[in-house]
Amino acid sequence: MPHDALVSRTTLITRDAADPLARFRDLFHMPDDLIYLDGNSLGPLPKRTVERMQQVVQDEWGRLLIRGWTACDWINAPSRIGGKIARLIGAHPDEVICADSTSVNLFKTLAAALALKPGRHVILSTPDNFPTDLYMAQGLIRHLGGVHELRLVDGERIEDHLNDQVAVLLLTHVNYKTGRMYDLAHLTQRAHACGALTLWDLAHSTGAVPMDLNGAEVDFAVGCGYKYLNGGPGAPAYLFVARRWQPVFSQPLSGWMGHATPFAFDPVYEPAPGIGRYLCGTPPILSMAALECGIDLLLDADMQQIRAKSLALTDLFIQLVEMRCAGYGLELMTPRDHAIRGSQVSFRHPQGYALMQALIAAGVIGDFRAPDIVRFGFAPLYLRFVDVWDAVDRMLHILEARAWDREEFRQVKQVT
Ligand SMILES: *Cc1c(COP(=O)(O)O)cnc(C)c1O
Questions:
Q1: Which pTM does this prediction carry?
Q2: CATH number of 50-299
Q3: Is the pLDDT of residue 1 over 60?
Q4: Where does the chain bind pyridoxal 5'-phosphate (predicted)?
Q5: Pick the catalytic residue: 309, 369, 375, 394?
Q6: How many other C-beta atoms lie within 10 A of the C-beta of residue 72?
């Protein structure tokens, strides 16, 4: 969107009326007067989820008990939901499975990837990667006897560090702090050119950015269920393994649900033939039922429309903050270039923590990331253009009145 000084609350209401995704907002529970800019941390509750939870608890668990595994096809929830996620990320249905947390899935896929490259010992990543990804890699390295090295290099120069020592390039597609997005296809191709495998963390892009994992020939990926998929707090995550790598290796968490025949109760582990071997224990059916509602909503929308609106919302937010809140110490961290921007906008502010607390008190929910970042996520399914105006309006009032400058807004909470 061009820099448009004529933008006003009224023009944005007109813009909302023409929005092809407008009908989705009413499918979510959204408290009145709240502007929710944190769907990249925890997506809101779809109305359908409430009904579905009632049904799965009362009718399925309550009435059918153990028969639900077959009668309600609980047993195939991980592959069925995986197949739906596949449509959002450009994968085949049999390449994705819904299971565990992102952290655990990262462990399983990273272990599988390393085992495919026995002669190489480097996991290449960046120091600003999401910490759990680095922690899981560190734990796996210790577990494997310390022969591998986690090499952390500046993301802007990552290509210079791809060489014949690198077993796996481990990157998060959209950076959680800055919203910067890597060129997934290009880096995957560069990694392959030097004989390395790729493992992408798609936590901040699934459901927000269209992706074509197979078009890019990605090897492994993991992603999160409770952010843009709106699956609920602690929702199950997913993992992707390209068909060509599925039969080659078994992941190390060889639980019975990943066995070829779990109900044969064989004392010897034999992995399931396909993506099923990436399961470990019994799937959390209630959580999966909630997640599936969130995914079904997204599948009803068009990912290209989602991306177009996401960029329009983030452009508008940047424009309005810079126009209306100039001179208050906010410094943009998110790239202006669409090609390298995810679906969030982050600013630095010297009083970032207190500013975000004051915003939350004023009904604008974003979040804070240490040391000084205020972060705003824009989920196109339920956000309106007028919400962007109102959020900036409330921020301007807080900045003008120094309303953040209160003791209660400096008390750092356990979850930020
Ligand atoms: C949110 C997020 C995770 C979360 O991992 P959990 O195991 O669900 O806690 C992992 N990686 C990235 C990049 C994230 O943004």
A1: 0.97
A2: 3.40.640.10
A3: no
A4: 102-103, 130-133, 172, 201, 204, 226, 256, 282
A5: 375
A6: 18
